[in-house]
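Re: beginner question about structure tokens

> Can someone show what the tokenized structure looks like for a real chain? I only ever see the sequence side.

Sure, here's an example I had lying around. Input first:
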Amino acid sequence: MTIDEFKKTVDYRVICCFCKIPFIDTRISVLEELKYTISVHVIKNDKIEKIKYVTKTKNDKIKILVTNRIKGEKYAFCVIY
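And the corresponding structure tokens:
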């Protein structure tokens, strides 16, 4: 599945909808209850820090950031699809 195909799925819309929850802990716990896999994404590029950023891993899995970059750190939380 490509990133463009993923952006047309219901799962993408659901994840984006829950990204609007203001508290990070609540957002992550709700996504975990919906059986999405939450992981930590290391951000190597300083320009990538926005929520809903979608990337593809080497294993053909898709990662979507569900938090902005944590202040002062080089990571963010993501959903692995």
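Each token stands for a local structural state, so reading them left to right follows the chain. The first strand starts at residue 37 and ends at 42.
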